[in-house]
Amino acid sequence: MAATRKRTKRRASRAQNSALKALSLAALALPGLMLNSAWAQEADGIDVQVTHFAEGERDILGVDYNSFADAIDLPQGFEPIEAETLFVRSRFNVGGRFRAFVNYTHDTWSGATAVATAYAAQGANAASAGRHAADGVTITGASPILGISANLIPMQFDRSLSNGYSLLTGAIDNRRTLVMSSASPETREQIDAKLRYAWNEAALDVGGGVSDERDYRSVFGNIGGRFDFNQRLTTLSWGVSYTESETHATLDPDGLPFFDIEHYTPGLGSTAVLPATSGYVESIFGPSDPFNPTSVILHGDRRDWGAQLGLTQVLNKDAVATFDIGYTRSTGYLSNPYKTVLGHTVQFLPGVELGEEILHNGSGGAFLEVRPPERNLVTAHLGLAYYVEPFDAALHIDYSYAHDDWDIDAHTLRAEWAQPLGENWLVTPSVRYYSQSAAGFYTTGIFQTVDENRDIVLAYPQYFSSDTRLSAFGTLSGGLTVSNEIFEGVSVEASFEYFTHRGDLSLGGGGEEDFADYDYWTLGAALKLTPEAIAGRAGHGGHQGHNGHTEHRSHHAGTPAGVMLDHALAEAGDYMVGYTHTRGTQGGDILSGARAIDLSAVRTTGCNGAPCAVTPEQMNMHMHMLHLMYAPTDWLTLAIMPQWMDMGMSMAPNPDFLFTNPEGHAGHSTSHVHETGGIGDTGFYALIKLVDEPRHQVTLALGGTAPTGDVDITLRKTGANPVDDVYMHYGMQTGSGTWDFIPTLSYEGGADTLSWGAQATATIRSGRNDSGYALGDVFQASAWGGYRWSNFLTTSVRGIYTTQGSIEGAFPASAQIDPGTGLPFIQEHIGPFDQSGSYGGQFWDLGLGVNLTIPGGAFAGNTLKFEWVQPLRDDVNAFQLQREGTLFLSWSTSY
């Protein structure tokens, strides 16, 4: 029962936190803005969680240009939005009454999202077998409706502007549809930290962090505390926070001819009504055309102040209640730079009931949304956690309410049932309902009316947004979480939740029409470690009672951070948990063989002997790897090593390159970036002890990786790339796509303060992957020596030689028709990294490492390793960016 109540307390904290997140209105919230009012004491530990989010397909209406009869349902031309999140949470004592909390979050998302709402009868989304792809359908990529705005079918409207008449049928047709846009993968990283000082009946927290993505950056800080009363049966918590954010969004170059940006361009007339702090555009012009910008960057600053007050009350031995209130004030640029609103100019002639729409040719038809530059949000939350003794379970009920001066009222009701099964299992089904009213400025389109002289009678409104996340809707979801404490200090968790988002689920009715309905789901997995419990179970991992094992393990503490699969565990029943972060960079010169090549030569012949449209400037690779090892016998250790990948590449255009379709070049006339990330390949290994002497060990690792990473990540549609089946560069895919065999032979030795070792490893591909290629086979040999300066500090030097073959095969050519030429599309926006021959080579490196073994406390016996690997010589195949170095960081603990 005590254990169940402990779980109940943790679940209450989690449910409360989830409710607060719901209150923040996910579409508009900022990271780090709200403080968690739950002050449940948790043991030192590390949690690692991976979550996958996926939307279902949207229902899209469009016009069949072959018949012009009516709007029809269109099959999807894009993959829906998908996102993957890596979340690492750590908490540990830093001495005395001080505790530290450090969190890291990495998000990657891609897919199609709505950029506007339009009348279906206008042909915003179009189908025409003669003009478009083989499936007869196109929903253009970068700027769906914007790209054909000059060709939209006009409509008629009555004088109330509430009814539109289709010119195709002559009847009222007010059906709306979403206009979708694709996107290449983008990433976000956030790190935040908090330091807590605790007295007997009070505590103080001071924290802050930063969230960074390509077009948005936030820096935040917060301070809070708690006071315990009534023999700790009552807790009062408080917090204040401040967030400062900057938007620097590059508007879609293919949509620039169709965007209306005068609301963000001071001095362009009556529509430039916003203060400069609420957003402005910076236009960059090419040397050949000083009037049409090649790039437009929307800048905006935002500030958020928040305050929160919470009360937690133990009602009796079986029930705990919580109540929280919060206030947030936001000012500055609060809009979404990638959302547009369709503007309709309607001319009414004297004596005529119906007005004729005047279509915008060029700019003026698609306005970047404008939200008010101020928002005040009040939130309240009431929660109850109740232990149900007959079932040895816990019921959690939470209700949240939010109100802001944008006229949004939001209600959230969530219930969870935490049911223990056996000693170590906990199953938690949940149900959640969310409802909100619409923002006062939400609209599916804005109108202005003109008279017979085209003088404005009714002007466009000051604020407007067609983002359906600001509409009235409801969301109903059901979820299930299953957790298991494998043994004391180590738990695993899996969760799934399915959501349906519908306008008619909004409380009181009046929700958005069904064009905005969709479903989505989340799937998560987590590993939770409590080192203090682990150390207590394993005697700090020393195995001092077995001769030789303490010395044996000290040798492994001297192995450089970049060396993996080098040793088996000491004896049957042992476990090891570890983490390795690898950061590699390339930049500077472009090499051909072992020498630097002039950039002009690369641009001229770097793409398989042909000119390149772009050349690489820099590439960064981050890999997060989790090590889970178990020894079923003294001589055998089994290991699972999942990976999380994150890559980014910046490119510069070739100013002399001429596209077949010159209109496509505008989108890449400035430096641009590609980003990918997500789950990588997963390793499975068996490590066998061949020699296990106190001062000499030889280990053979047999196994490899399963193709759990992606090899089918594609580029978004643009003017230069008007199809959706062109793959992103080989080096930006998150996996190999093949089952890879990775045999590894390692030797370790040591005497007194010295240690040494060597390793040989190979990666052998098993044929080509589903995308038609195979990465080159790899062989690597390394040798190292280390010196132990004290019982907790060791340094090392390592020499490394690596050879890798070039890629075999290639991505398939596009199977789609170029809408501009009517012929099969041929990819021209290419660089050296798109050539399968521009991978692999021979590489020589020097590694310098520092290893630290924590001597005492809850983390005693844990090992931290750092190694910098400096390239000495590169001899590359074809044309490749020069390597700048690789940093390895690792942590591990054995028990």
What is the approximate shape? globular
Q: Give the strand order, joined by hyphens, for the main sheet.
A: 1-4-5-12-13-14-15-18-19-23-24-25-26-29-30-31
Give the fraction of residues assigned to helices: under 10%
What is the CA-atom radius of gyration, in angstroms?
Answer: 30 Å
Total strands: the figure is: 48
Strand content: over 45%
For the residues shown, what is the average pLDDT? 84
Distance between the termini: 28 Å
> What class would the helix/strand composition place it in?
mainly beta
Could you describe the largest sheet, including whether it forms a barrel?
Answer: 16 strands, antiparallel, barrel
Figure out the total of helices. 4
**Weakly predicted, low-confidence segments:** 1-39, 127-150, 268-277, 538-555, 662-670
Structural topology:
Elements lengths: L1 H22 L21 E11 L4 E5 L6 E4 L7 E14 L2 E13 L2 E7 L6 E2 L9 E2 L16 E3 L6 E3 L9 E6 L4 E13 L3 E12 L2 E14 L4 E17 L8 E2 L19 E7 L2 E28 L2 E14 L7 E8 L7 E4 L7 E3 L5 E15 L4 E12 L4 E13 L3 E12 L9 E5 L5 E3 L14 E15 L2 E13 L15 E12 L1 H8 L10 H9 L17 E19 L1 E3 L1 H7 L8 E17 L5 E6 L1 E11 L18 E8 L2 E11 L3 E11 L33 E2 L2 E8 L2 E12 L7 E2 L3 E11 L4 E12 L3 E2 L31 E13 L9 E32 L1
Parallel strand pairs: 2-7, 16-22, 20-27
Antiparallel strand pairs: 1-4, 1-31, 2-3, 4-5, 5-12, 6-11, 7-8, 9-10, 9-21, 12-13, 13-14, 14-15, 15-18, 17-18, 18-19, 19-23, 20-21, 20-22, 23-24, 24-25, 25-26, 26-29, 27-28, 29-30, 30-31, 32-33, 32-34, 32-48, 34-35, 34-36, 35-38, 36-37, 38-39, 39-40, 39-41, 40-42, 41-42, 42-44, 43-46, 44-45, ...
